[in-house]
Amino acid sequence: MSEKHKTGLPLEGIRIIEFTHMVMGPTCGMILADLGAEVIKIEPPGGDKTRNLPGLGIGFFRNFNRNKKSVVLDITTTEGQTTVKNLIAKCDVLLENFRPGLMTKLGLDYEQLKDINSRLIYVSHKGFLPGPYEKRLALDEVVQMMGGLSYMTGPEGRPLRAGSSVNDIMGGMFGSIGVLAALRERDVKGCGQEVQSALFENCVFLSSQHMQQFQMTGEPPPPMPSRVSAWSVYDVFTLAEGEQLFIGAVNDKQWLTLCDVLDCPELAQDPNLQTNAQRVAVRPNLLARLGDILKNHNIDLLSLQLETAGIPYAPIMRPDQLVNDPHLIASGGLSPMILEDGSQTDVVLLPITMAGRRPGVRQPLASIGEHTEEVLSWL
């Protein structure tokens, strides 16, 4: 690696070849690319169809494919398969998230590739880990329904998917964790291995706290909108001009502080509201009383008072508002990235710092096949 391409990042020198689309597989590759790996995305002739998704999918490609190189190859042809196998022989990691059986049909499954590269770490992102469901096709929404998340999110009788591709994104995260562990194990044993990450098992992991709740109590946990809260004040309130604010007072000290902020000594002195258990017992009535008090408060002034007093609070933000969030901007959480057409967008960086710095954007978003000639010159 030339001096001008050195990054000082932890995965510098690791080469990854990626056969992915949509969200799950690309998320894994993006994380590893941000951490310094050289990630080569193999796209079909005409490019990854994720580049042109409409609606809620419009941001997928830009968001999950930064810091990668783009190579166009038709891996359905004998020539394309030969070329890609020669590339795989020079790589440390392979990522894929195609439908079950496709990579085997193309001669690109782990069993066939480990003879070409015994040090290869082969990461499959699937709907299900091996078992009765493994040949089913899965989507984030499918596994949210199967894995308990939609039930817990919506009100009773109305299962509701989460407002983001949580399983796709976390499935890619677990795939990257598997890569890091497999690289460490390869350092010790000298050989690669197959790693699998799956949407269904990821969603069950998200629901596992509620599974444990059932095993401890014998009672099925109610959906979150119907839950019995452990805290009396832990809710969203409507303030003046229809603004909404979440406020949480999770112990007796915070309760007294909140009463002080709201200038409500009668609540602080009420003998029936002295402990959290007492307040939870009358929670609906208490929330109604607080709602009447809060409906006349200005959100900006109250937010400042709550922050000064150390009371947890949160305005209800939309994703479009986060583009101008002062903390994200000041902390370096948003970074400019040049797009294929030369324009610029801000992207959200990984939510970590390493030695005080945020792994960031190192190159423009690759256009279709931009690095084909460069990468194939290695062969």
Topology overview:
Layout: E1 15-19, H1 24-34, E2 38-43, H2 60-64, E3 68-72, H3 78-88, E4 93-96, H4 102-105, H5 110-113, E5 121-126, H6 140-146, H7 149-153, H8 166-189, E6 193-198, H9 199-217, E7 233-238, E8 244-249, H10 252-261, H11 265-269, H12 276-281, H13 283-294, H14 299-309, E9 313-315, H15 319-322, H16 326-330, E10 334-338, E11 344-348, H17 372-376
Parallel strand pairs: 1-2, 1-4, 2-3, 4-5, 5-6
Antiparallel strand pairs: 7-8, 8-9, 10-11
Helix pairs in contact: 1-8, 6-9, 8-9
Short description:
With 379 residues, the chain is an alpha/beta fold. The protein is built from 17 helices and eleven strands. A six-stranded parallel beta sheet has the order 3-2-1-4-5-6.
Q: How many domain units?
A: 2
Q: What class would the helix/strand composition place it in?
A: alpha/beta
Q: Please, what is the CATH homologous superfamily of the largest domain?
A: Crotonobetainyl-coa:carnitine coa-transferase, domain 1
Query: What share of residues are in beta strands?
Result: 15-25%
Q: What features would you describe in this structure?
A:
It contains 17 helices and eleven strands. The chain has 379 residues and is of the alpha/beta class. The protein folds into two domains: 3-207 and 329-376, Crotonobetainyl-coa:carnitine coa-transferase, domain 1 (Rossmann fold), CATH 3.40.50; 229-316, formyl-coa transferase, domain 3 (2-Layer Sandwich). The model has no long low-confidence stretch (mean pLDDT 96).
